[in-house]
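INFO  loader      accepted 1 record
INFO  loader      residues=257
INFO  predictor   begin
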Amino acid sequence: MNSSLRAALAALLIIVALASGVAASAQRNTEKDVIPAGAVQVEFVKVIDGDTFDVDYDLGPGKDYDRIRLIGIDTPETSYSYGNQPECYGPEATNRTESLLLSADEIWVERDVNPVDPNDRLLRYVWYVTGTSDHAVVFLNEQLVEEGYAVARDYPPNLKHQERLDDAERRAIKEGRGMWTTCDASVSLDPGLEDDDVPDTAPIDRTKTPISDSDEELVCSFFDTKDQAQDFLNLYPEMADDLDPDGNGRACDAYFR
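INFO  predictor   done
INFO  writer      dumping C-alpha coordinates
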Protein backbone atom coordinates (compact mmCIF):
# COMPACT_ATOMS: atom_id res chain seq x y z
CA MET A 1 0.00 0.00 0.00
CA ASN A 2 1.49 3.34 -1.01
CA SER A 3 2.17 6.19 1.39
CA SER A 4 -0.63 8.38 0.07
CA LEU A 5 -3.16 5.66 0.72
CA ARG A 6 -1.78 5.11 4.23
CA ALA A 7 -2.25 8.81 4.93
CA ALA A 8 -5.76 8.69 3.49
CA LEU A 9 -6.61 5.73 5.70
CA ALA A 10 -5.47 7.55 8.83
CA ALA A 11 -7.63 10.52 7.87
CA LEU A 12 -10.47 8.17 6.97
CA LEU A 13 -10.51 6.57 10.41
CA ILE A 14 -10.70 9.92 12.13
CA ILE A 15 -13.46 11.21 9.89
CA VAL A 16 -15.52 8.04 10.18
CA ALA A 17 -15.36 8.49 13.95
CA LEU A 18 -16.84 11.97 13.83
CA ALA A 19 -20.40 10.70 13.84
CA SER A 20 -19.82 8.73 17.02
CA GLY A 21 -17.77 11.64 18.35
CA VAL A 22 -20.73 13.98 17.99
CA ALA A 23 -22.88 11.51 19.88
CA ALA A 24 -20.24 11.22 22.59
CA SER A 25 -20.06 14.98 22.90
CA ALA A 26 -23.79 15.13 23.44
CA GLN A 27 -23.42 12.72 26.39
CA ARG A 28 -20.78 14.74 28.20
CA ASN A 29 -21.54 16.40 31.49
CA THR A 30 -22.77 19.86 30.55
CA GLU A 31 -23.00 21.07 34.14
CA LYS A 32 -20.37 23.61 35.10
CA ASP A 33 -17.70 22.42 37.50
CA VAL A 34 -17.13 24.15 40.82
CA ILE A 35 -14.21 24.00 43.20
CA PRO A 36 -14.90 20.99 45.47
CA ALA A 37 -15.53 21.50 49.15
CA GLY A 38 -12.35 20.82 51.08
CA ALA A 39 -10.03 21.69 48.18
CA VAL A 40 -6.95 23.77 49.03
CA GLN A 41 -5.59 26.61 46.93
CA VAL A 42 -1.94 26.40 45.85
CA GLU A 43 0.47 28.28 43.62
CA PHE A 44 2.15 26.61 40.67
CA VAL A 45 5.96 26.49 40.87
CA LYS A 46 7.28 24.24 38.10
CA VAL A 47 6.33 21.25 35.98
CA ILE A 48 8.15 17.92 36.26
CA ASP A 49 6.21 16.03 33.61
CA GLY A 50 2.64 15.78 32.39
CA ASP A 51 1.20 14.36 35.62
CA THR A 52 3.67 15.73 38.17
CA PHE A 53 4.53 19.28 39.22
CA ASP A 54 5.61 21.36 42.22
CA VAL A 55 3.35 23.78 44.07
CA ASP A 56 3.60 26.26 46.93
CA TYR A 57 1.02 25.83 49.69
CA ASP A 58 1.91 29.06 51.49
CA LEU A 59 0.69 31.52 48.83
CA GLY A 60 3.04 34.08 50.27
CA PRO A 61 6.68 34.85 51.11
CA GLY A 62 8.99 31.94 51.75
CA LYS A 63 9.14 28.49 50.24
CA ASP A 64 6.99 25.53 51.19
CA TYR A 65 7.12 23.51 48.00
CA ASP A 66 5.42 20.14 47.60
CA ARG A 67 5.33 17.76 44.65
CA ILE A 68 1.89 16.87 43.28
CA ARG A 69 1.12 13.65 41.42
CA LEU A 70 -2.24 13.74 39.62
CA ILE A 71 -4.59 10.94 40.71
CA GLY A 72 -6.35 8.61 38.29
CA ILE A 73 -4.27 9.34 35.22
CA ASP A 74 -0.87 8.59 33.73
CA THR A 75 0.98 10.67 31.14
CA PRO A 76 3.86 9.38 28.98
CA GLU A 77 7.25 9.52 30.65
CA THR A 78 9.91 12.07 29.70
CA SER A 79 12.92 10.74 31.64
CA TYR A 80 14.49 7.66 33.20
CA SER A 81 13.42 8.55 36.76
CA TYR A 82 11.83 5.85 38.94
CA GLY A 83 13.00 3.17 36.48
CA ASN A 84 11.03 4.63 33.54
CA GLN A 85 12.15 5.60 30.06
CA PRO A 86 11.01 8.38 27.71
CA GLU A 87 7.80 7.62 25.80
CA CYS A 88 5.88 8.95 22.82
CA TYR A 89 3.94 12.15 23.58
CA GLY A 90 5.77 12.76 26.86
CA PRO A 91 7.08 16.23 25.95
CA GLU A 92 3.69 17.25 24.53
CA ALA A 93 1.92 16.21 27.75
CA THR A 94 4.46 18.07 29.87
CA ASN A 95 4.10 21.24 27.81
CA ARG A 96 0.31 21.05 27.94
CA THR A 97 0.20 20.72 31.72
CA GLU A 98 2.67 23.56 32.15
CA SER A 99 0.80 25.91 29.82
CA LEU A 100 -2.55 25.25 31.50
CA LEU A 101 -1.21 25.86 35.00
CA LEU A 102 0.79 28.93 34.04
CA SER A 103 -2.29 30.55 32.50
CA ALA A 104 -4.64 29.66 35.37
CA ASP A 105 -5.97 32.37 37.64
CA GLU A 106 -6.33 29.96 40.57
CA ILE A 107 -5.25 26.36 41.23
CA TRP A 108 -6.95 24.11 43.77
CA VAL A 109 -6.04 20.58 44.87
CA GLU A 110 -8.31 17.88 46.29
CA ARG A 111 -7.19 14.74 48.10
CA ASP A 112 -8.74 11.28 48.14
CA VAL A 113 -8.30 8.36 50.54
CA ASN A 114 -4.52 7.97 50.35
CA PRO A 115 -2.86 11.41 50.37
CA VAL A 116 0.75 10.39 49.58
CA ASP A 117 2.40 7.86 47.25
CA PRO A 118 5.49 5.73 48.04
CA ASN A 119 7.69 8.45 46.52
CA ASP A 120 6.36 11.06 48.99
CA ARG A 121 4.42 12.90 46.30
CA LEU A 122 1.04 14.35 47.23
CA LEU A 123 -1.73 12.50 45.38
CA ARG A 124 -4.30 15.05 44.26
CA TYR A 125 -7.06 15.92 41.86
CA VAL A 126 -6.42 19.39 40.47
CA TRP A 127 -8.95 22.04 39.56
CA TYR A 128 -8.11 25.41 38.10
CA VAL A 129 -9.89 28.64 37.28
CA THR A 130 -9.18 29.78 33.74
CA GLY A 131 -7.70 33.15 32.99
CA THR A 132 -10.44 33.79 30.42
CA SER A 133 -13.33 36.18 30.88
CA ASP A 134 -15.74 33.47 32.02
CA HIS A 135 -13.36 32.24 34.78
CA ALA A 136 -14.50 28.68 34.20
CA VAL A 137 -13.51 25.92 36.61
CA VAL A 138 -11.73 23.02 34.88
CA PHE A 139 -10.86 19.55 36.20
CA LEU A 140 -7.23 19.23 35.03
CA ASN A 141 -6.97 15.44 35.44
CA GLU A 142 -9.98 14.97 33.19
CA GLN A 143 -8.87 17.56 30.63
CA LEU A 144 -5.51 15.87 30.06
CA VAL A 145 -7.22 12.51 29.47
CA GLU A 146 -9.94 14.03 27.28
CA GLU A 147 -7.38 15.74 25.05
CA GLY A 148 -5.27 12.59 24.64
CA TYR A 149 -2.31 13.70 26.74
CA ALA A 150 -2.91 11.05 29.42
CA VAL A 151 -4.55 7.69 29.93
CA ALA A 152 -7.00 6.96 32.74
CA ARG A 153 -5.35 4.72 35.32
CA ASP A 154 -6.96 3.68 38.60
CA TYR A 155 -4.91 3.65 41.78
CA PRO A 156 -7.14 2.14 44.50
CA PRO A 157 -8.37 3.26 46.92
CA ASN A 158 -8.22 6.72 45.27
CA LEU A 159 -11.22 6.26 42.98
CA LYS A 160 -13.45 9.23 43.76
CA HIS A 161 -13.51 10.55 40.16
CA GLN A 162 -12.35 7.42 38.31
CA GLU A 163 -15.58 6.82 36.40
CA ARG A 164 -15.42 10.34 35.04
CA LEU A 165 -11.78 9.85 33.98
CA ASP A 166 -12.54 6.51 32.33
CA ASP A 167 -15.34 8.15 30.34
CA ALA A 168 -12.93 10.88 29.21
CA GLU A 169 -10.49 8.24 27.94
CA ARG A 170 -13.21 6.50 25.92
CA ARG A 171 -14.06 9.81 24.25
CA ALA A 172 -10.39 10.51 23.50
CA ILE A 173 -9.97 7.11 21.84
CA LYS A 174 -13.17 7.45 19.80
CA GLU A 175 -12.13 10.87 18.54
CA GLY A 176 -8.48 9.94 17.94
CA ARG A 177 -7.13 12.72 20.12
CA GLY A 178 -3.48 13.29 20.98
CA MET A 179 -1.54 10.08 21.64
CA TRP A 180 -4.42 7.94 20.34
CA THR A 181 -3.51 9.03 16.80
CA THR A 182 0.13 10.15 17.08
CA CYS A 183 1.40 7.19 19.12
CA ASP A 184 -1.15 4.46 18.37
CA ALA A 185 -0.03 2.05 15.64
CA SER A 186 -3.59 0.79 15.22
CA VAL A 187 -5.55 4.08 15.41
CA SER A 188 -8.52 1.88 16.24
CA LEU A 189 -10.86 4.65 17.47
CA ASP A 190 -12.54 1.84 19.41
CA PRO A 191 -12.15 1.73 23.22
CA GLY A 192 -13.08 -1.97 23.13
CA LEU A 193 -9.95 -2.75 21.13
CA GLU A 194 -7.62 -0.86 23.47
CA ASP A 195 -7.64 -3.58 26.11
CA ASP A 196 -4.55 -2.39 27.96
CA ASP A 197 -5.65 1.27 27.88
CA VAL A 198 -2.45 2.46 26.22
CA PRO A 199 -1.69 3.18 22.55
CA ASP A 200 -0.72 0.04 20.61
CA THR A 201 2.87 -0.44 19.50
CA ALA A 202 1.74 -2.68 16.61
CA PRO A 203 -1.37 -2.56 14.41
CA ILE A 204 -4.35 -4.62 15.50
CA ASP A 205 -6.71 -6.49 13.19
CA ARG A 206 -9.89 -4.43 12.80
CA THR A 207 -11.36 -6.27 9.81
CA LYS A 208 -14.61 -8.16 10.25
CA THR A 209 -13.96 -10.38 7.24
CA PRO A 210 -10.80 -11.55 5.48
CA ILE A 211 -9.80 -9.11 2.75
CA SER A 212 -7.60 -9.30 -0.30
CA ASP A 213 -4.67 -7.04 -1.11
CA SER A 214 -6.82 -4.70 -3.18
CA ASP A 215 -6.99 -1.08 -2.07
CA GLU A 216 -10.80 -1.11 -2.40
CA GLU A 217 -11.30 -3.93 0.08
CA LEU A 218 -8.68 -2.57 2.44
CA VAL A 219 -10.34 0.84 2.60
CA CYS A 220 -13.87 -0.54 2.71
CA SER A 221 -13.06 -2.80 5.64
CA PHE A 222 -12.99 0.27 7.89
CA PHE A 223 -16.71 0.91 7.38
CA ASP A 224 -19.46 -0.91 9.26
CA THR A 225 -22.09 -0.53 6.53
CA LYS A 226 -22.38 0.20 2.84
CA ASP A 227 -24.37 3.34 3.61
CA GLN A 228 -21.55 4.64 5.77
CA ALA A 229 -19.09 4.09 2.93
CA GLN A 230 -21.43 5.82 0.49
CA ASP A 231 -21.84 8.84 2.76
CA PHE A 232 -18.07 9.12 2.97
CA LEU A 233 -17.68 8.89 -0.80
CA ASN A 234 -20.29 11.62 -1.26
CA LEU A 235 -18.32 13.86 1.09
CA TYR A 236 -14.91 12.97 -0.34
CA PRO A 237 -15.24 12.14 -4.05
CA GLU A 238 -11.45 12.25 -4.38
CA MET A 239 -11.45 8.81 -2.72
CA ALA A 240 -13.43 7.34 -5.63
CA ASP A 241 -10.42 5.44 -7.03
CA ASP A 242 -10.34 3.36 -3.85
CA LEU A 243 -14.01 3.30 -2.82
CA ASP A 244 -15.56 3.04 -6.29
CA PRO A 245 -12.92 1.69 -8.71
CA ASP A 246 -15.53 0.53 -11.26
CA GLY A 247 -17.00 4.05 -11.42
CA ASN A 248 -20.63 3.03 -10.98
CA GLY A 249 -21.20 5.60 -8.22
CA ARG A 250 -21.77 2.97 -5.53
CA ALA A 251 -19.15 2.81 -2.79
CA CYS A 252 -17.78 -0.56 -1.74
CA ASP A 253 -20.46 -2.52 -3.57
CA ALA A 254 -18.03 -5.39 -4.18
CA TYR A 255 -17.11 -5.55 -0.50
CA PHE A 256 -20.65 -5.30 0.94
CA ARG A 257 -22.39 -8.03 -1.08
